[in-house]
Design a protein that fits this description.
Blueprint (H helix, E strand, L loop, with lengths): L2 H4 L2 H4 L3 H32 L4 H8 L3 H48 L2 H6 L2 H43 L1 H8 L2 H38 L1 H6 L3 H53 L6 H43 L19 E10 L5 E11 L3 E5 L6 H8 L7 E6 L2 E2 L5 H5 L2 E4 L10 H5 L8 H10 L3 H5 L18 H14 L4 E5 L7 H14 L4 E5 L11 E6 L2 E6 L1 H7 L2 H9 L5 H9 L1
Amino acid sequence: MGRHLWRLVPFARPYTKRILTGLATNAMARLFDLLPLVLVGQVVDLITPGANGLALAATEPHLFWVYGLAVLGGFLGLALCQSASDYALDSMAQMVRHDIRGRLYEHIQRLDVAFFEERQTGDIMSVVSSDVDTLENFFADVSTSIVRLVITFTGTYAVLFWLDWRLALLLLAPLPFAVAAVRFFAKRVQPRYRQARRAVAAINSIIENNLQGIGVIQAYTAEGPQAERVLAQSAEYRDAAIHAAAERARFLPIIYVLAGLSFGTLIALGGWLTFTDQGPSVGDFTSFILLAMRLVLPLFVFGMLINQIQRSEAAAQRIMELLDTEPAIRDRLDAKPLAGRPSCVEFRDVRFDYKGREQIINGVGFALGTGRLIGVVGPTGAGKSTLVKLLLRYYEPDSGQILVDGLPLTGLALESFRRYVGYVSQDPFLFFGPVLDNIRLGSPEASDEDVRRAAEVAGADEFIQGLPQGYQTLVGERGLKLSGGQRQRISLARAILRDPAILLLDEATASVDTRTEEIIQRNMDRLRAGRMILAVAHRLSTVRNADEILVLVDGLVVERGRHEELVRKGGVYAGLWSVQSGEGAPVVQATEQEA
């Protein structure tokens, strides 16, 4: 068993009683399984002319019924014990699979945003779904078969040594060669299965990504090239699986030859010893042959098990690699929980760059207190959304500090801080399910009336009431059954329902109509009391009433002030405003060139 499979042993420890029960009943099942074979030899001796048993059978014919009932008892014992063993070990396997999948998902949720930006969703789904299911087969079938083979092998050999130790040693002779063949096969086939698991993950990633963008693929008639991508990855999986099958095809004949050599020698030498009265009796030799045949089958089954073990090892490696991934953003050992609702957030000379890219935030500083709304505007790529991500602590600043009530954000327990944050992203995500559940995402205890009030503030109640089932209407995966503006309003209602101390709006009204924007703006003005609002906007009318507007260009705050002040300055903000308000494009053109 590979080292990655051994690392999964702790998941099975809580179910030690089930495992021991399964092993014990499996051992008893094997004894009951071997009992009829031994009894057959006794019956053969009873009916063999010239044997001592023949006279005994003549005087006590009821012995045949005794042996017959004993055989029946063996089968009944086998049925009961095997059923108990299978249930104990199968139920253990299901529980272990459940625990592994749960542990994986909990761990994935703690990983930072950068991890998901660098790894495809389909690949992660393949680990959580396909690889974990492969391990279910290992714990339920492979491990049970291994236990059964070990007990059968040792139990059978014990009986064989009892019947005739010389013939038993003869059967052991090819065993070292079989072990060497198994090790050679495992070494050759394992890389093939790893390659196959990677190919499966790549296929899942492409399909998952393409299904999300199927509309774009159809619009650009890209069906052919995308199908070729899937087929190329599928071909990689096919070739890896075929190579693994080829290795197995070369391995099995070796096992057959070794088994045939051992069994043929047993028939020849054992038959001669029995015939010359130098070996076991005819009945014992018959039992010996039947028991020896039970050893041949485990060898073939073991060859198939090695195949399955290698598959499981490849799956376990991917699972453990994911579990070993440490989040870049996590609580420090000395992290402290927030004592209560925060009242002040401050950026001090914050600088940040994404790995492998130029610096996106260059010395930004501002203070946001309770009851205030700060707007952040600027051209595309200026770093506006990055400020929100830094405050959510999706990333850590390269230098400078973000302070919450005077305490460094990095020194606060992450969950205790985010509990006070409401967030609306520029690409609002809705989950498959009712509208009601989507709004309640961060506030599961909220009443239906609370949900409706939050929807009213977000300008969403009217259109939700018009849906076929109102708040119980299913929105579909990613909310694709709704318009962009409707998704934004539901996402905004979700944030408002949480009653956050810090409300982060990243293009929260970019997709709504002018009338709805006016409603949201009026409600936002009322929401300022008791909370801090940081609003990123392309549409400048969204932040026109902000207490302060920061104008970002290339990660620098080039202008700051209220709307009227910035318009009078005639700078970058004034240029952007002139275009959006219809007062003339030349100003912004010059401004953009200047920026």
